[in-house]
Structures are given as structure tokens and as C-alpha cells.
Amino acid sequence: KRGEEATKLFMDMKGMIDVSPESYVSLLSSFPEYSLPEEVGLGKGREVHGHVITTGLVGFMVGIGNGLVNMYAKCGSIDDARRVFCFMTEKDSVSWNSMITGLDQNGCFVEALERYQSMRRHEILPGSFTLISSLSSCASLKWGKVGQQIHGESLKLGLDPNVSVSNALITLYSETGYLNEGCKIFSSMPEHDQVSWNSMIGALANSEGSGPEAVTCFLNALRVGQKLNRITFASVLSAVSSLSFGELGKQIHALALKYSIADEATIENALIACYGKCEEMEDCEKIFSRMSERRDDVTWNSMISGYIHNELLPKA
């Protein structure tokens, strides 16, 4: 809301007073907060960009260029972000981070890693956000070896991996076949946040034969008082499904009720899949009947799979 108000105020002011470069930077930084549809935010952003061009500062003031790159990337116009970035006569670490992050968030994973390599050739040290985005691109591409190289380089440079970087490493290693490395990262972390626990539980739940470890990790999260969410519960229910341990599924279901998330479609679908694998079709049917308008393709497929798994073919 503040971003919309700032833009309106700016449009009212332009032509009446000289707008300082700092005002442009502040205004552009508000665009990611827009609740407007993406195309509307982009239109407003281009309008501001037009006024920036008249000042002649876009290519010469790094803060304005960074703001434009970030704004266009957040609004989904990566081509515009790329053009502004290439036009900038001066770039700092924020410039590179904005471009690399924007490319990763817009699905341009290979180019994000190419920009990372280019940044390093310019002898600019990567910050936490740059590392996170680069590791995210590696995970999306399943390029585990490249991710390992980036990880190794960051250690050689003496960059301190914070919680968010460590979380990105867990995701990278778990999604590229290096689960043991992900477990080592998790174990070495001095502190964990919700993303850390979700990443580790999800990685173990998705790894064949690691269901017991996923459940243990979930119980450890409970033991230390970590706040859990739908992602945590969906992951551990997937692990319980692989173990066909119905009683444990019911205990986790009770916990989901305690957390007031048992009526969310994601959890209900996970419960149906879990109970189906655990030969508890009555519980599946109870949840299915309660879902009503919340049913989606996953719901129906889980019910059908449950009936087939339990050899109730007429019901399937």
C-alpha cells in the first residue's frame, strides 16, 4: 500500500519540484511491496523509469540502476532488467546480486550462473543473497557439481555461511543426490530456523529408505520447540506413508489438529495418501467427505490410489 501511495505522490510532485536521485532510489525500492497485479506494477515502474531517463542518471548513478533492475525483475520483466543492467556504466555488488537474483526468480537459471561467473571474473565478492540465488539455480538445474564448486569457493573466500545460505545448501545437496552432504550442513549449523527444519525433513522424506530419519528429524523439531507449518506436516506424513505406520500417522494428524491446520487441503491430501498406504481407508473416506469444495486432482488421485492399494477396486 505504501508503494502505491509513494508512486502517486511522486507523480503529483513531478514537474513541480526537482526530484533528488535519492527519492528515485527510495521509490523504486517500494515496488516489491506492491499488492497490485504484476502488469499494473510494471506499468507504474516503466512510468517512473521514463522520468529517470530524463534526468540522465540511469546509466551513471548505481543506486538508481540497481533499483530499476530490482523493480523490473520483481515485476517479472527480466528483459527490461537485463537491458538496464547492461546499460549501467558502473556496477557494485548490489547490481550483480539484483541481476542474479532476478534471473533465478524468473527461471533463467543458466544465465544466473553465467552472471555469477562474470561477477567473480570482475573480482566482486558474492554476498549472501548472491550465493543463495546461485545455489538455488544449481538446485533447479540439478547441477550438484557446480553447486559444490560455488560452496567450496565461498569457504575459500572466508564467507561466513548464515542460516539462509546453509538452508540453500541443504536444498541444493538434497535435490542433486548428495543427501549426506545436506545432513552434514544441517548438523554443523549453530542454529536452525523453520526453513532449515522443513528443508531437512522434506529431503529425508523424499529420499528412498530415509523415512525413519525424516520422522526422527520431525520429532527433534518438536523437542526444541520449533514452530511447524503445513510444509513440515506434509513432508512428515509423506515419510509415514513410506513406512505404512498408521498409528504414527494418527498421532501426527492429532498434532495437525492442535496446530489448526488439519482442515487445509495440502494437509488433508497428505493425510489421505498416508492413511491409504497404511490401510486405513475409513479415515481416508472421513477426510474426503469433509473436504467437499476443497477437493482437487491430488485428492481424487490419492483416494483412487488408496482404494487400489487396499484392493478395493469397485470403489476405485
Automatic annotation (TrEMBL):
Keywords tagged on the record: Repeat
Start-end of each PPR repeat: 92-126
Gene3D superfamilies in the cross-refs: Tetratricopeptide repeat domain (1.25.40.10)
Organism: Noccaea caerulescens (Alpine penny-cress)
Annotated GO MF terms: RNA binding
Name of protein: Putative pentatricopeptide repeat-containing protein
Entry keyword Repeat: yes
Gene Ontology biological-process entries: RNA modification
Superkingdom as given in the UniProt entry: Eukaryota
